Amino acid sequence: MQLKPKVSVGADASRMRAKVARRRLIAASCALLGATAARSQDATKSAADSMSDEWAFDSALAYYHESGRVKAIEPIVNLSKTYGDGRTFSGQVVFDSLSGSSPNGALTSTKVQTFASPSGKSLSAAPTTYTTSSGQLVSESAPIYTINPGQLPVDPSYHDQRLSMSGNWGLPISRLTTTQVGGKLSYEHDFVSVSANAGVSRDFNQKNTTLSFQLNDEFDRLSPIGGAPVAASDYALFQKGGGKTKDGVGAMLGLTQVMNRRWLTEFNLSVDRFKGYLNDPYKIISVIDPSGNTTGYLYERRPGTRTRKVAYWENKAAWGRLVLDGSLRYMADSWHVRSDTAEFSARWWNFDRDRYIEPTVRWYRQTAANFYTPWLDSGGSKYIDYASADSRLAAFHAYTVGLKYGAKIEDSEDQSSSEFNVRVEYYQQTLDHRTPGPGSLQGLDLYPGLKAILVQVGYKF
């Protein structure tokens, strides 16, 4: 499991869209939740001057735990500033620390299975002896692990760490037009990603309508542990090479409209295309004979390009102490993955408006990639074009339910300038289209779902 994350081909374009959406929603919400939607230039300038010397900080510590799999701890720090001349800056620093067990892609079996950790070069438990360049004789034990019958094959020694830093600047070039530029750097011990974005937005209709356009470019360098395996090669041969790269570009067109003093809507269209090394170097596929016995494994092979198109619609409305937020998202890509997402939240303030609760529900569904397969038949495994047993590319549906509680904290002048919040979410994923296993595999749970819990504590000031 990767936070990110690092998912996927269109993830950064989606995050890019989300950043722009959040920025526009925050700006418009000031009018939405105020006493009137009309804002004079003098009032706007006065508000800007009052913020020109202040930084806003939003920090959080999140704990994520998948049942029987990965655990993650993630501290996050966001900072932003609005200057008196209309310039804005926002930045984020994120550190992820993951540990636990990660599925390697192989199928559950009725027999004991033996695998090597990513750095391994053999499936034998016997020590490997070799001579170093200085002539020293070295003996090392092979980093292998075994999986008992009926259990999902997972690498129990999985661990990863990621440091991500990003910044975005808004530069007004006229009273109605603003440009945005930004960049992001993400580093892991086996992965480095660098991206840049630039865009422009323009207000119309007395600043009640905003049209925006943004471009994103990303370059990734992968250095898998033990080397990048030859796609679709025999797992037992450990044919691996050096590092790999992938790069991609994306674009987003967005429209934000203040419908009235209580209702704000936004619609975005985005597209991105990645090319290069799109395999997961740590995923394999089981090769099964007609009796259900595992005869071997192959490394996965995915297409070298992927294009993703996304449509996103969000609505935000407020009545008194209640704020509602609902969104729909549709995605389609060149791998034949189609996904639908619906999310709804409701924030309810108390009478003094210094505390709130916010329940959230999210529903997600996707179809499988056209090359997804939980296993390969032994008779035709040598003739595969593309194949992956990664469950993230399978057909599944999932839901998330959560609850957030926030409380404002008064400063020395009895002004609520800070906020403490805590959020708890539960996630459950279920795979669809469960093809029965052949022979002895019948009766085994070949398609285990996923359950996870997230707890996050935040403080902003």
Helix content: under 10%
**What's the overall geometry?**
globular
CATH topology group: Porin
Give the CATH class: Mainly Beta
Strand order of the largest sheet: 1-2-3-8-9-10-11-14-15-18-19-20-21-23-24-25
- State the order of secondary-structure elements, H for helix, E for strand: HHEEEEEEEEEEEEEEEEEEEEEEEEE
Keywords:
461 residues; Porin; 16-stranded antiparallel beta barrel; 2 helices; 7% helix
Q: What is the structure about, briefly put?
A:
With 461 residues, the protein is mainly beta. The chain has 2 helices and 25 strands.
Question: Can you describe this structure?
Answer:
By secondary structure, the chain is mainly beta. Helix content is 7%, strand content 56%. The chain has one domain: Beta Barrel (Porin). It is built from two helices and 25 strands. The longest helix has 22 residues, at 11-32. The protein has a 16-stranded antiparallel beta barrel. Strands 17-16-22 form a three-stranded mixed β-sheet, with no helix packed on it. The chain has a two-stranded antiparallel sheet with strand order 4-7. Strand 23 (396-410) and strand 24 (416-431) form a beta hairpin. Mean pLDDT is 85; it is low at 1-52.
